[in-house]
Design a protein that fits this description.
- It is a single chain.
- The protein is of the alpha/beta class.
- The termini are far apart.
- Helix content is about 50%, strand content about 15%.
- It folds into 2 domains: about 260 residues, Aldolase class I (TIM Barrel, Alpha-Beta Barrel); about 55 residues, no CATH class.
- The strands form 2 sheets. Strands 1-2-3-6-7-8-9-10 form an 8-stranded parallel beta barrel, surrounded by 6 helices.
- The chain is globular and about 50 Å long.
- The protein binds ribose-5-phosphate.
- The site of ribose-5-phosphate (R5P) has 14 residues, from strand 10 and helix 10.
- Ribose-5-phosphate binds next to strand 10 and helix 10.
């Protein structure tokens, strides 16, 4: 393995403990503005210093990541389909090696769709990408995509991970499953585990712990960090498992402590509600008084009595005050 490739790889998987914490923010490449990742710049900024590397598309890297950041970039270079398109597996390589070098990528990432309609295209693309990237000493991370029609058990994931490694991928990203040790054991290159859909924080920490115990080098986690109400405590807790060897109870305790220490967010709606209430009160009360005052000069006390029961519409403005 060339020095440059080893060097880049060691910036992603830390050589001192063979562990990795990758923050995934590439979801928009097929999902568009994913919930809580609508503004990638805001999401990435406070988390960047807590991850070992960032998995990102070139668009978001250029627009939303400071060029002064020293965090290694794992650049997604595949795409071509969206969540509303016909077939998510129809991906191609969308970024040239020259652009990846301009972006100072520490690794390139692409998905393969083993068992799908477009498996041939994506697997051949992986082989070609490895050949191209190795010319420049850049490692390739293969993502074993899963979908409705694709399995997510140890048998399927072992097959998909092994296929990726056989094509020369230097790291394989896959999903955690029962008997995950089997997936790890039959894959000759390091495996990193995706976080998957948002689950309760403790469960996501459990997944992190289990993945490492089964032999993964770490997690490439996205939604379970930035879709948490407390992204920074969450990434710190995951980091404490990966690099601090905390168990799940200890990490969750740390998460709760960090949450309790976060500056309390001011409730966003209450101040506005107060303002609008304050505005409404003076607006409506004087009108009510005026209308009462107008009636008073008529000097007909009987009208007062008759207006109350006979004019229920007078009460209608009150609910609108709320
Ligand atoms: C999927 O292929 C995307 O590349 C994400 O990077 C990946 O799913 C990891 O993110 P999450 O932890 O949200 O599943």
């Amino acid at each position: 393995m060339d020095w440059g490739l080893k060097n880049r790889l060691s910036s992603i998987i830390k050589p001192q403990n063979n562990r990795a914490l990758m923050l995934a923010v590439d979801h928009g490449y097929f999902l568009g503005p994913t919930e809580k990742l609508e503004d990638p710049k805001k999401v990435i900024a406070p988390l960047l210093k807590h991850c070992d590397s960032l998995m990102v598309t070139r668009g978001v890297q250029r627009a939303s990541v400071s060029a002064t950041a020293d965090t290694p970039m794992v650049l997604r270079v595949s795409g071509g389909s969206s969540i509303i398109g016909e077939d998510l597996s129809q991906e191609d390589i969308t970024v040239s090696i020259e652009d990846a070098i301009r972006l100072n990528a520490s690794a390139l990432a692409m998905s393969i769709f083993v068992g799908s309609k477009y498996e041939y295209q994506t697997i051949v693309n992986l082989g070609k990408l490895v050949s191209e990237a190795e010319k420049y000493g850049i490692p390739v991370l293969a993502v074993t995509a899963v979908g409705k029609e694709l399995g997510k058990d140890a048998r399927y994931l072992s097959l998909a991970c092994r296929v990726a490694a056989e094509q020369g991928a230097h790291i394989v990203k896959t999903y955690y499953c029962d008997n995950f040790e089997k997936v790890v054991q039959s894959c000759p290159v390091p495996i990193i585990v995706a976080g998957g859909k948002k689950i309760p924080e403790r469960d996501a920490l459990q997944l992190t712990y289990n993945a490492i115990k089964a032999g993964a080098v770490g997690v490439d986690m996205g939604r379970n960090i930035w879709q948490s109400e407390h992204p920074v405590p969450m990434i710190k807790a995951a980091r404490a498992i990966i690099h601090g060897n905390l168990n799940v109870d200890q990490a969750f305790k740390l998460y709760k402590k960090l949450v309790s220490e976060e500056p309390k967010k001011k409730p966003q709606n209450n101040p506005n509600q107060k303002k609008s209430n304050n505005k409404k009160k003076p607006q409506n009360n004087p009108n009510q008084k005026k209308s009462n005052n107008k009636k008073k000069p008529q000097n007909n006390p009987n009208q007062k009595k008759s207006n109350k029961p006979n004019n229920p519409n007078q009460n209608k403005p009150n609910p609108t005050k709320k």
